[in-house]
Amino acid sequence: MNTLLAAAESKPDPAFERAWDRHRERVFRLVVRLAGSREVADDLTQEVAVQAAQAFPKFRGQAQAFTLFYKIAVRCVLRWRQQRPLGNDTLLETVPAPSCDPTTALTVQAALHALPDDQRAVLVLAVYEQLSYKEIAAVLEIPLGTVMSRLARARQQLRKELSDVL
Going by C-beta distance under 8 Å and a sequence separation of 6 or more, which residues neighbour residue 87? Predict the structure, then answer.
């Protein structure tokens, strides 16, 4: 809590504020998709903002700012998922595709959230956020080959889980 108070009291870097304002909605959508709850995403996105503001002075600009924000967001969600009690699944609130009926959308979201964290993160970044494999590797700090193998396993698992629905 002291970190939050200190961050709130300090004056943020104007460059950070511009970058955060530009990418805040993308970060929030990513967190909703990974966490499965808008309520949880609100809290986690605030945590991402605080951590990003602290990390931004060290940001060298070799990558895009959203890469830094996504990296922090994924870590925050993974930490949250590890700390929550087992069996306390949140209601899946991600927005379904307009062409999908609600039952199918919920089934797809449940299958997505049943994936292991590492596979779900890669799939969400590739499909929903439309990042390149190289960008995903940078965000998750994993080799390019690992991105491709996790994505292939995630797609295979989803096909298996959703074969009756789709």
Answer: none
Q: Greatest CA span in the chain, whole angstroms?
A: 54
Backbone angles phi, psi at 61, to 5 degrees: 75, 15
* Distance separating alpha carbons of residues 104 and 96, to the nearest angstrom: 9
Token pair listed for 12: 């943020």
Q: What is the pLDDT of residues 105-158, one digit of tens each?
A: 788 888 888 999 999 999 999 998 999 999 999 999 999 999 999 999 999 999
Amino acid residing at 60:
R
Domains belonging to the chain, first-starting first, are 1-93 (1.10.1740.10), 96-166 (1.10.10.10)
pLDDT tens, residue by residue, 40-77: 999 999 999 999 999 998 887 777 888 999 999 999 99
Going from the C-alpha of 142 to that of each of 70, 74, 151, the distances in angstroms are 14, 13, 13
Distances (CA, A) of 95 to 43, 66, 126, 137: 19, 22, 17, 26
